[in-house]
Amino acid sequence: MKKITGELEQFNSQHADLLILGGTVITPNGAEHIDIASSGGIIVALGDLKGRWQADQVINAQGLHVLPGVIDSQVHFREPGLSHKEDIESGSRGAVLGGVTGFFEMPNTDPLTLWDADLQAKLDAAEAKAWCDYAFYIGGSAVNAKQLDRLENLPGCAGVKVFMGSSFGDLLADDDAVLRNILSHGHRRMAVHAEDEALLKERKQIVEESGDVCQHHEWRNVESAFKATQRIVALAAESGRRLHVLHVSTADEMRFLAQHKRRVTVEVTPHHLSMFAPDCYETLGSLAQMNPPVRELEHQEALWEGIKNGTVDVIGSDHAPHTLEEKLRPYPQSPSGMTGVQTLLPLMLNHLHEGRLTLQRLVDLTSAGPARIFGIEGKGRIALGFDADLTLVDLNAQRIIDNEWIASRSGWTPYHGKKITGWPIHTVVRGLVVVKDEILVGEPQGKAMAFLEVVD
Ligand code: DOR
User: Fold this and answer.
1) What local confidence, expressed as pLDDT, does residue 456 receive?
2) pLDDT per residue as tens digits for the range 418-450
3) Is 291 near ligand 1, meaning CB less than 6 Å away?
4) Which CATH class for the 69-374 domain?
5) What is the residue-averaged pLDDT of the chain?
6) CB atoms within 10 A of CB 255
């Protein structure tokens, strides 16, 4: 195939802010040996630019693959209210060190993100200290349901997130009438944590009696997840609302969701793709405690099948930090959640190395997918006129993940000691180099992402 090549007309001065030379670039055409020029934060030229274009800064990408910036559409950065676990600065620092150029953050902070002022407080904090681009979810609940049409369209809002089962924090919408009310107020794709609250309550005695974390996935069993997913898909069909089912964890849901792809998109997480029960609980104890739980190998295999057959749209980390002290409380008082934003890409590159997916599919899941399903403006692919969000990776680099490397305030990863092949080397956010040779450089200059109006 002929290489893509082109320049934006208004930028044909052939002087750019940044030139990336000699890399293997993953464009919508596939892998191409081309150079990239960015000016004013956007991609202004692609092709054979060496010697023809000058720039203030040049990155030699020989031997590296240049991917469209990774977008993590599910993180919990804990600010405000819980910043002893994480804040927007530390969370986004971990993001860029792990090759992530944009994140959507979840509303179960303290206070919850339910109203205009809650969202604005997060946007103000992020404007001052986010290392990459961002958007924030509004929580959907009985108290704000009637105003969600308006709230979901506020600038910087990623959409509405609903917890059908209690996980961490006070956000909960488990009643069909409330869910109907939420679904009928708004048009954007609604993100849902699908675990059935009634079943979770009924079954909690299993672990209250045993205190055994190895039973975490028996308490929050397959049926709790599957039942909630079936309920919300049926309710969304009534109102014609598009849905995004977060962190799908069971074979049963994956098979079911494959039949509902016209309306419903699907996220899986690196931990559900990389760990399995009971091994993870035996080796990591409550560090592997997450909701929905990591389950047996047969479920993990079904998630991989969903990646192969196209049922899965995005990989989100569900980065959910808690301090080690909190995690080491006796189970089930230990909170569920683990860090993940910084290890999302390394783990997936390691899976690529092991032959579990292709690089093109990985890019679809981490960049093109989130951009497509949420309608993010100017992101998700390397193309003229798009934001110069770029993740440069060395597919052959070998590293060992270490707690010391983790930027999260919580200071730990369940993957401590894991050997990885494939590593992020440079991270570029709108043409600004924020990680160079694996080292953080520059200043936090993240901006709110904008969204296209997507018509149902
Ligand atoms: O295990 C979890 N912890 N799952 C979630 O969905 C929320 C999260 C948290 O915020 O800690």
Assistant:
1) 45
2) 999 999 999 999 999 999 999 999 999 999 999
3) yes
4) alpha beta
5) 96
6) 14
How far is residue 107's CA from residue 122's CA, in Å, rounded to a whole number?
Answer: 10
Q: In the chain, where are the structural domains located?
A: 9-66+383-397+419-440, 69-374
Catalytically active residues are: 318
**Is the confidence at residue 179, as pLDDT, over 70?**
yes
The fold of 9-66+383-397+419-440 is: Urease, subunit C; domain 1 (2.30.40)
pLDDT at site 180: 97
Q: How close is the Cα of 167 to the center of ligand 1, in Å?
A: 6
Alpha-carbon distances of 19 from 8, 37, 50, 195, rounded to whole Å: 15, 5, 9, 47
Q: Are strands 30-33 and 24-27 parallel, antiparallel or unpaired?
A: antiparallel
The Cα 352–Cα 42 span in angstroms is: 28
Is 189 close to ligand 1, i.e. is its CB under 6 Å away?
Answer: no
Provide the Cα torsion 442, 158, 200, 276; round to 10°: -50
CA 100 – CA 428 distance, rounded (Å): 9
pLDDT in tens, 238-262: 999 999 999 999 999 999 999 999 9
**pLDDT on residue 454:** 60
Contact 216, 228 (CB under 8 A): no
The predicted pLDDT at position 263 comes to 95
User: Does residue 226's CB lie within 6 angstroms of at least one atom of ligand 1?
Assistant: no
